Amino acid sequence: MKTEHHEKINIQLETLLAEIKSIENHYLYNYESILKTYLDNLVQARINAEIIIQNFFENIEFKIKNTLLEIYEKNYPFILKSLEDFKRFISKLSDHKSRLEGEINLNYLLSLNFEDLFNEYDKIKKDSYAQLEKLSRKTLVIKDEVFTKMMNVLTQEVRYEPISDISFIQEQNLYYSDMKLKQLNPQNSQQDELKITCPSYFSDECRHKILHYFQDNTKILRIIDMESLYNSVSKSYHIFEIPLNIPFEIPAWHKSLITSSGDIYLIGGINSQENNKELKTVYKFDYDQLTLKEYPEMLKYRYGHELCYLNENIYILGGSNDAEGMLVFCEKYDLLEKKSMVIAPLKVKTCCGCSCLYKQEAIYLFGGLLEDKVLNDCIQRYDLKNDCWEVIKFEFDKDEPSQILWCSSAVQINSNQIMVFGGYLAENEGCRSTILLDIDTREGKENKENKENKENKENKENKENKENTENKENRENEQTNEFAYKILRNNMYDLPYGEGFWNDQPIIHRGKVFCLQNIQNEEDGSANQLNLRRIMSFTGKKWNIYEKKT
User: Fold this and answer.
1) Structural domain tally of the chain?
2) In this structure, is residue 17 part of a structural domain?
3) Average model confidence (pLDDT) for the chain?
4) Are 145 and 271 within one domain?
5) For site-directed labelling of 12, which of 135, 166, 356, 518 has its Cα 20 to 30 A away?
6) How far apart are the C-alpha atoms of 44 and 42, rounded to whole Å?
7) How far is CA 230 from CA 147, 196, 289, 549, in A?
């Protein structure tokens, strides 16, 4: 019994000594580590506070812009009328001047009443300046209360709280800290948030940061200002409808693209007014004349093709025409030289796929159609430097593979991921799914072995004097050794509506992805590609839908 009690006491004593030692190490001798934790929390709190302040002032900026816009829109007709009144009066005076410079007519001289002219001028001037004075009095003032509200938000969200469950430490009279900084708006789902770290698409000098689309078989271009979308608190927008000064109607099944400097190009399609004649036309939108300026044609008649822009070049990929069906033919259109040149053909023919520039070194082309109602379920990669295509091999992160669709939309969102969303199944059924192509550069032993194998193979080929074309094919086949591809699927990123994207150029602007989705025709269930688009943005966590302002 003595031995048994001794053993129990000894075990309890060792346990207690271990606990005390742990407390001493953590709270007595680990001051720097604890301090670092608090300071890290403080840094994070500061970042979050800066986000709150930035959002606060962006909201104010948005309200100012909208308020001023409403004022000018309301007063614009009055200002316009005043200018027209002045023009008419000037025209009247010019007419009098011309008549006085000609042969003198006594009846005319007697009828000329200068007092009436001066009175008319005074009335026009008085009415015009009265409207301008009303406009100038409507100033915008930011009251001091806005700053008070901002500080109240920060005061409520940043505070110190005692560390929980420290009663035992207090009883032992050990050193402890009673300060714990609460982070601003902690999010438990941060691990599920997609990181959108790619820079904004438009250059800083760009004057036209917009979403756009042309309406088929009309003479209309529609544009939406990106800044207004980004700052919209109510998730609403103004759409500007521009009647184009052109002698033809916008081709059906065309493709359009906006460059990083804001230039809009309309390429290809079919002419519905001429028995669906296929086109190889290239037009540039003229912002001053509100017209389409004709450029030299591309090389191939096509519609349902893909466009991708880089460094004043538009890459025109695949598509279809009646003579050849689905195309593998690709070309590069030089916007400075205004001419097109042939580039390497696709490995697999496709129409209505979606493309995405990746790191300015490659273009990825996703899916499309092999023929009517037959999906092309592959992903093709174009090496910009070596002018060659390959079909990449990828694996799925889940047992249920995701389909590669047609008429989807794709954009690189961070250093190693491309986001692909929406599109249609083979039977034209809209799909809500979003997938991520995760691109991982292989390193270590595998990469070394691949490199050695490649060098040995090239040496052997040189000794055997193989043709240059065969060397190029080997380089293409070995390209996939440099990357590991995986398709990631998470239904929390799925679209609110299952539809495709005929305007499949999503734009990253200030950390958000903005895009134009097709809207289903309620009468027959088909995609209405003529005049309606759904404007959406993705924040990294969720999709937002914008409503048109009435």
Assistant:
1) 2
2) no
3) 78
4) no
5) 166
6) 5
7) 23, 15, 28, 15
